[in-house]
Design a protein that fits this description.
Blueprint: H1 3-10, E1 17-19, H2 20-28, H3 34-37, H4 50-53, H5 55-73, E2 77-82, H6 88-96, H7 101-105, E3 107-112, H8 116-127, E4 134-137, E5 148-153, E6 162-166, E7 170-178, E8 183-190, H9 194-200, E9 208-211, H10 213-229, E10 231-237, E11 239-240, E12 250-253, E13 256-258, E14 268-270, E15 273-274, H11 275-284, E16 287-294, H12 295-301, H13 304-313, H14 317-331, E17 340-346
Parallel strand pairs: 2-3, 2-5, 3-4, 5-10, 11-15
Antiparallel strand pairs: 1-7, 6-7, 6-9, 7-8, 10-17, 12-13, 12-14, 16-17
This protein binds S-adenosylmethionine.
């Protein structure tokens, strides 16, 4: 059964309306849905990510991670990537880690992903490196008490969100289904729940809010784990601090923006990550904020310009031009340079 039929049969038989987060969850994370079976990343698919643009991205993240390990751990540890996509970022990190072979020798690597197709691609990509201790898990739940280095790129934007806006009153967006026309539409419902209204008070100024319960819960779990066992979390995503001016929910199919109700279960759906919320969760877990900055600033202050010079020096002219273009995509303020990097660690 396709995802649209499943949503109609499973959910709209019992309910007249469906909360937006529940609708997104069905499209992205439930049976046969986008993040269960699709292969989203790459030129011929739906979108491209920083590790796929250039090896420089993974190398700079890798050098940062190895430097942390040398300074703060220097023994056995967990290296955990959330949502590794095609496995490219880990491949680049492993390559630069050759500067200190002990790093790999001491690491227990775990990849967290739910996507059967991507896990297959990750296994193929990483098998060739002959590292035999990589484990896969569908979600983060670690019993190990070793310190951990946890990192992710474009993972937290995949969680579903609820959407609220204020006119006279706070309203929440819901999805309804019109069986005669076999189509979905949005409707608004007034919020009367006192606890929820209290939560929305901090979004009063702009009157727009997107809230993801699951995103906060997963980040909290990671923070708790390193708070108890030491370590660091590096989160890279597109997002905001303070507040949103407009809804950020967007859907993408084959590199083009679409409507949420198009290509049900076959397109990517994302939203900006609320970094203020993540910072707040880290602080509640007694972690310190080491870095919060743009991807541009992070890459530049950690050596991407030098890395680019070295790569260009050993390349023919055509390749030099390509390296320059890739560099601009990673740091350009209207491109990925505007993404945010949050690094939190134990005190
Ligand atoms: C946008 S892709 C980013 C891939 C990769 N990090 C990169 O930069 O190319 C999101 C990744 O997270 C995985 N993912 C999304 N939501 C997830 C969830 N709730 N649990 C586990 N993996 C998830 C996807 O399958 C995919 O590998």
């Amino acid at each position: 059964m396709n995802v649209k039929d499943r949503i109609v049969n499973k959910l709209f038989k019992k309910n007249k309306y469906l909360r937006v987060d529940k609708f997104i969850n069905e499209c992205l994370h439930e049976k046969n849905s986008y993040y269960k079976i699709n292969n989203p990343i790459g030129k011929n698919h739906d979108f491209i990510t920083a590790p796929e643009i250039s090896q420089m991205f993974g190398e700079i993240i890798g050098l940062y991670i190895i430097d942390y390990w040398i300074k703060k751990i220097k023994s056995h540890f967990n290296l955990i990537e959330l949502g590794p996509g095609n496995g490219t970022l880990l491949k680049d990190i492993i390559r630069v880690s050759k500067i200190n072979p002990n790093f790999l020798n001491y690491s227990n690597i775990t990849l967290i992903d739910k996507n059967y197709n991507l896990i297959k691609i990750q296994k193929e990509a990483l098998n060739s490196l002959k590292i035999n201790k990589i484990k896969w898990a569908k979600e983060f739940s670690l019993s190990s008490t070793l310190p951990s280095i946890i990192y992710s790129n474009e993972f937290f934007d995949c969680f579903s969100i609820r959407q609220f806006y204020k006119k006279k009153h706070w309203l929440e967006k819901y999805v309804s289904y019109h069986s005669s026309e076999n189509r979905f539409s949005f409707i608004d419902k007034k919020i009367i729940n006192i606890k929820l209204l209290k939560k929305l008070e901090k979004f009063e100024r702009n009157g727009v809010a997107e809230i993801s319960k699951e995103r906060g819960e997963v980040f909290n779990k990671l923070c708790k784990h390193i708070s108890n066992n030491k370590g660091i979390i590096i989160t890279i995503d597109y997002g905001y601090d303070q507040s949103l001016n407009n809804f950020s929910l967007q859907s993408i199919f084959k590199h083009k923006k679409t409507h949420l109700f198009d290509n049900i279960g076959k397109q990517d759906i994302t939203s900006l990550v609320n970094f203020d919320e993540l910072k707040g969760i880290a602080k509640l877990n007694n972690l310190k904020i080491d870095i919060y900055c743009s991807q541009k600033d992070f890459l530049i202050s950690n050596g991407i310009n030098d890395r680019k010079k070295i790569l260009k020096k050993n390349s023919p002219l055509q390749k030099q031009k390509k390296i320059e273009e890739e560099y601009k995509r990673l740091i350009g303020e209207k491109q990925m340079g505007n993404f945010k990097v949050l690094v939190v660690s134990t005190k």
